[in-house]
């Protein structure tokens, strides 16, 4: 501010916002991120504007998750305050998405699609969540980003469960399992086995359910995860 560096001030405000978000001070975080947005728009800094929109989305997303944990609800059965907060997150992600499309930033589009999928899932809009996660998946594959691909499969599996499409969920969870093994991520591998166990229980294929739950158990024991 002293040297009149507006772009520097915008970035600093954004960093403050992100830090306050991590500290759980969501309302103060929004104020700082909004300042980042305002200055970026004033300076015609499209990249900064896109980043600020994304950050504000993240603050509302984190606040919505925090509120829904404290009120412990199933996806889709949300108190009004949680719903409004997640809808705001979604709006900012949408604005971010249209701007990064304009800028031709595919990686940023991938992040926006993933977060839109997650907010729609929490809102109980499972078909919308699936559409967004499929976009996320396509971009992850484009970039050869295995970790993002794995997350997309997992999220697609979760959303199909709520639509009662257990067979499709099982296929997505198997892909999650495959990738978690490629990535040598045992905790995620265990989680995928757990999800497959539950899905096969829903499909009333109890033999396979037992098989996957045993795999889950073995990894949990190996990891010493009580």
TrEMBL record:
GO molecular-function terms, A-Z: G-protein alpha-subunit binding; GDP-dissociation inhibitor activity
Cell compartment(s), UniProt: Cell membrane; Cytoplasm
SUPFAM superfamilies: TPR-like
Any Gene Ontology biological process: establishment of mitotic spindle orientation
One cellular component (GO) term of this entry: plasma membrane
Major place of residence: membrane
Keywords assigned by UniProt, alphabetized: Cell membrane, Cytoplasm, Membrane, Phosphoprotein, Repeat, TPR repeat
Renumbered ranges of TPR repeats: 150-183
InterPro entries: GPSM (IPR052386), TPR-like_helical_dom_sf (IPR011990), TPR_rpt (IPR019734)
Family: Belongs to the GPSM family.
Protein name (record): GPSM1 protein
UniProt organism field: Pandion haliaetus
Lineage: Eukaryota, Metazoa, Chordata, Craniata, Vertebrata
